[in-house]
Amino acid sequence: MKSSPLVALLAAGLAVGALLPPLGAQTATSKDAENALRAQVDHFRIVKERGKQAFYTNKFDLSGLPHYEPQPLPAGWLRIYGNNYLVDGALGDYWQKAFEKFQPGIHLSFNMPTSANALSALNFDQAELVMSHKPSFYDLLAYERIKNCEPIEITAVTGSFDVGGWQNSYDIIVNDGNPIKGISMEQLDGVFGAQRDGGWVGTNWRPDLARGPEKNIRTWGQLGLTGEWADKPIHVYGFSLRYNTAVEFSDVVLKGSDKWNENIHAFGNYMAPDGKRYVEADQITEAIGKDPYAIGFNRYRGERPQVRRLPVSVHDGEPFVAHTLENIQNRTYPLKSEVYFFATMLPGQKMDPRVREFLRFVLSQEGQAEVQRDGKYLPLTAEVAREQLKKIQ
């Protein structure tokens, strides 16, 4: 199996600085490039270390998932491209060995540099299957213009609870001195969003997703707090709006509008003067811990001092659901994350039988047992697995 080029760089013992001109000769732009490369190398070092561990030993009930019943296939290769976390952890290897027991004539070929360019492998027929988070607007637009159809999207796994990189779950955090009990998805839209004229669903603009400024929420009193809190402003924190995490949050909470609260504090990873990478999740958490009127969306990476997580309800007036490992896996917590397989099925044609069989395996009790064994992503529920299977029948 093939891993990330940056991981290979580390394994070879090459310093990023050796690839760049001396610092004295660098422009500001090249210094930025060096810091960006150093941040990526540090990122992949941490990912490689995490990939060796099984973080969860929970045994979720997989009995409702269908068993994989193999259909006969001619021998051949199935090329899979994209998400490096599949091979930086053990899941790719687990799936490969388990699937080949059922289909000994089918061999998986992994080329997994990053989700960032996964869909391009389908555009130019470099792979039969790619694994990724949701593609960006222009990734999807390029695919549609080249293939004249949308890719088939199959939910493969539920994102992790708290393992950074493995699509760890969203949490909503406030300062631990804030008395608020919980928040609904509609209220999150009011807090983090702004008046909008519509929203995107894929590459389709939907004017029916518009809302007016009267639904903006800018004070804690609008969320039901009274007394000294009633007129206090809400200070909003989150990820840089260029980052995929913010785009996904916008798609789920802001109806794909990209119309954010005008006062949001947005953070991004950077290399601190001490040479260590200061990740946005830690910046957000530390800022909220110092700001009594703060609320933020974040990728959960474990408990932190001076902040607490808010339960979230799907609709106003419904019970709040706590942010727990079990509620992420069973999908009752509304802000779950997912990772997907994408494949091409041109109009009027059938899905490649090798792709169909591997996806049937992944969505089976046997395939999701390997997800559980790896201990980072979380296995699908039976309901979700059956919904995905309908797409490939």
Concise overview:
By secondary structure, this protein is α/β, with parallel strands linked by helices. The protein has 13 helices and 16 strands. The two termini are 29 Å apart.
What is the approximate shape?
Answer: globular
CATH topology of the largest domain: D-Maltodextrin-Binding Protein, domain 2
Question: In percent terms, what proportion of residues is strand?
Answer: 15-25%
Number of helical stretches of at least 4 residues: 13
CATH homologous superfamily descriptor of the largest domain: Periplasmic binding protein-like II
Ranges where pLDDT stays below 50 over 5 or more residues in a row are 1-25
Query: Which class do the helix and strand fractions yield?
Result: alpha/beta
Number of domains: 3
* Beta strand count: 16
Read across the widest sheet, the strand sequence of neighbours is 2-1-3-16-4
Order of helices and strands: HHEHHEHEHEEEHEEEHEEEHEEEHEHHH
As a percent range, the share of helical residues equals 25-40%
Mean pLDDT level? 91
Determine Rg (CA atoms, Å): 22 Å
The profile of the biggest β sheet is: 5 strands, mixed
In the CATH scheme, the class of the largest domain would be: Alpha Beta
The N- and C-terminal alpha carbons lie at a distance of 29 Å
List keywords for this structure.
393 residues, alpha/beta, D-Maltodextrin-Binding Protein, domain 2, 3 domains, 5-stranded mixed β-sheet, 16 strands, globular, disordered N terminus
